[in-house]
Structures are given as C-alpha cells and as structure tokens.
Amino acid sequence: MKNILGLLPKILLGVALFILVVTNLAIAYIFFAPDTLPKPFYPLYAMPEQVVATAESENEHGEGEHVDLSNLPPGQGLMVDTGSKIVNLVDPTGRKYLRVGVVLEFAPKDPEYFEMPEEEKQAYITTFNQEMESRLPVINDILITLFASQTFDKVYTAEGKEHLRQQIKELINQQLPEYHVIYVYFTEFVVQ
User: Fold this and answer.
1) 29 Cβ neighbours under 8 A, 6+ residues apart
2) In which residue ranges of the chain is CATH 3.30.479.30 found?
3) The domain defined by 69-191 carries CATH number 3.30.479.30
4) pLDDT (0 to 100) of residue 51
5) How far apart are CA 8 and CA 3, in angstroms?
6) What's the pTM value of the predicted model, to 2 decimals?
C-alpha cells in the first residue's frame, strides 16, 4: 500500500505532463497546420475561404432569405455626392457660416444587388444615379434648411457633428421613404 501511495505523485505528475504536451500539440496544429487540413475550429484570421463564404451566407442570408438592407453596415451601399454647401448659421451678427460637403450612402433597394454579376451591378448603379439626380433638389433642400437652422455652438464640436449626421439621416429617410440612408459622410466641414 505504501508503494502505491509513493507512486501516486509520480503518476499524477506524468498525467499532468502528458495533458500539457497534448494541449500544446493541439494548439500548434490549429494555428500552424495548413488550413486545408480539418481542424476543430479555425482562427478568425486564417479561415479557409469556403468556410468563410459558407458562414457569411448563413449569417447574412439564412435559409432562402436575402441580405437585410435596413441594417447594412457603412461602406457597402451606393454613394451620392450632394456637393459642397455654404450656409449662414443662426447668429445675431449674421457673420457665422458653415461650408460642408456631404456624401450620402444609400442601401440598394434590390436585395439581389450583392449577388448580381458585375455588368448588372453597373446598370443598377447607373439607374440608381439617374433616380438620385431627380431627387437631388429635395435632398439639397433638406440639407440647406437643416444647416441654416444650426448655431455655431451646436456644430463646432465632435458631438455636434455626429448629431447633425444623425439628423440628416433621419430627415432624408423620412422625406424619401423609398430610399434608405445608411450613413452620412462629411467630405468638408468648415465653421467660421
């Protein structure tokens, strides 16, 4: 009995070392083995393209569903440059003004847009740009009216710019409900 109790710490140490070696080998295999080999999981920076494509299509599309265009992240929509605007701010002296360039990013109306071949995408973008040209007077009116109602104190801070960005997005989405603004980019912003 004493021999077995004397061997117990050595056995436990051997088991612990075996577990440590197996764990380290598994970690090395997962991180350094080629991604073409099967792995229990893939590090995010090195997923095989097939696994990524499958995961993205499952996350975005589900079973027979399309991309949710209302929650499209910025950078994936269609850009519309509204140009640069110079507007007097609300000021008793009338000497404060705002010069701002605005680019609006819209979600495509067609859920199939991201799966279209390149030629169809270009045709869709051309049609979209023609539609936007006819809506530009409405958009410019919204922007100029909103900018002209601002004060210097409201727009010169980072929080003020972010609030203005949200107001633009909300107003255009209300006035043009058939289109959805994803994000508002300021390409120029000067307050004097």
Assistant:
1) 39
2) 69-191
3) yes
4) 45
5) 9
6) 0.62
